[in-house]
Amino acid sequence: MPTLSGFARKTFTSLRGVAAVALVSGLALGPASAEDYPEMTLKFGHPYAETHPLAKGAQMFADTIAEKSDGAITVEVFPNSTIGSSRDLVESIQIGVVDFALVPTTNVASFYPPLDIFYLPFLFRDSEHAYAVSDGPVGEALYADMLDKTGIRTLGMYESGFRTITTRDKKIEKPEDMEGVKFRVVNNPLNVATFKALGANPTPMALSEVFTGLQQGTVDGQDNPVGNVKAFGFDKVQGNITLSNHQWAGIMFLADDKMWADLPDNVKDLFAATAKETQEWERKELNAVESQYLDEMEADGMVVTRLTPEQAAAFQKAMEPVWEEYREKIGSDLIQSAVEAN
């Protein structure tokens, strides 16, 4: 049986006690009546297009809260980076300008570096392994420590799936094919290191700027999950997509802990339960539509490259220097706990 690292064990032991108390309290209280909910209006920002399952999950959260509180609680959703990029949203959460946000782990890692574990290339075997890390003892320990250090609370982990590589003209089948490609990456040192290791010229760029960058030739390619490629129209300005599955994109459901501390217990329970409900819905929805999106892009002329096991192994081997560099930065114990999670 795999063992939990020293990093996660101490925090998880205390969390189990808290979770047990919360469960008993929830069962004892039962559902609150509508008049028990105070009137309030809260802001929820994210960078995703309205058609994306992530955006639909956020809107479902807002709609469910309005319904269950009988209209007392309004959650205003601001999609498509309309109130800031992913980094802006994390900063806004910290200063209390935004109450909730959906932000990729890699952007939150700029504020809490241990989250880089989620973007260590080729760490996750499949979606179930990623869920075991994000929802289990490793994730819970990370979120508790992040709350303590940043004042940002984690209510759930949506996802946008495994990342793919897209390019305008060049078919990517082996690491050497990335040599010299002007490539947009998320503004995080780990993402830059990942594509430098492949020989590309990585260019950090906000998600809201990527379409224009690809269209104008500022960059020749980018990496994103299938859902993002379709939702943001990248398939219209890219001719090739390689299903590299090099990183899993967990999308954190964040809350301002100062706002949270002032909430009545029944509102906290409502928010926490609804975040988990919509997390499960969003994951199922995303996985259901990914194959549909891929079929549509292929039908429209995009060249889809599915790596053979041997080709995938070559990309994994190219990531060895990245793993060595980040083993010390992230921590060997944390990495081992993530590798062994099930």
Mean pLDDT score, rounded?
91
Number of strands: 10
Given the helix and strand composition, which structural class is it? alpha/beta
Q: What is the helix tally?
A: 14
Q: What oligomeric state do these chains adopt? A: single chain
Structure in words:
This protein is 49% helix and 18% strand. The N terminus is likely disordered. Helix 7 links the parallel strand 5 and strand 6. The relative contact order is 0.17. It has 342 residues and is an alpha/beta fold. Strands 1, 2, 3, 4, 5, 6, 7, 8, 9 and 10 form a ten-stranded mixed beta sheet that branches. It has a single domain, classed as 3-Layer(aba) Sandwich (D-Maltodextrin-Binding Protein, domain 2), CATH 3.40.190.170. Helix 2 packs antiparallel against helix 11 and helix 5 packs across helix 6.
Features:
18% strand, DctP_fam, 10 strands, alpha/beta, 14 helices, globular, ten-stranded mixed beta sheet, TRAP_DctP, 342 residues, D-Maltodextrin-Binding Protein, domain 2, TRAP_DctP_sf
Secondary-structure map:
Blueprint: H1 6-29, E1 40-45, H2 53-68, E2 73-78, H3 86-95, E3 100-104, H4 105-108, H5 127-135, H6 137-150, E4 152-167, E5 182-185, H7 189-196, E6 201-204, H8 210-216, E7 221-225, H9 226-231, E8 240-242, E9 248-256, H10 257-261, H11 265-299, E10 303-305, H12 309-318, H13 320-330, H14 332-340
Parallel strand pairs: 1-2, 1-3, 5-6, 5-7, 8-10
Antiparallel strand pairs: 3-9, 4-7, 4-8, 4-9
Protein name: TRAP transporter substrate-binding protein
Signal peptide: 1-34
Subcellular location: Cell envelope
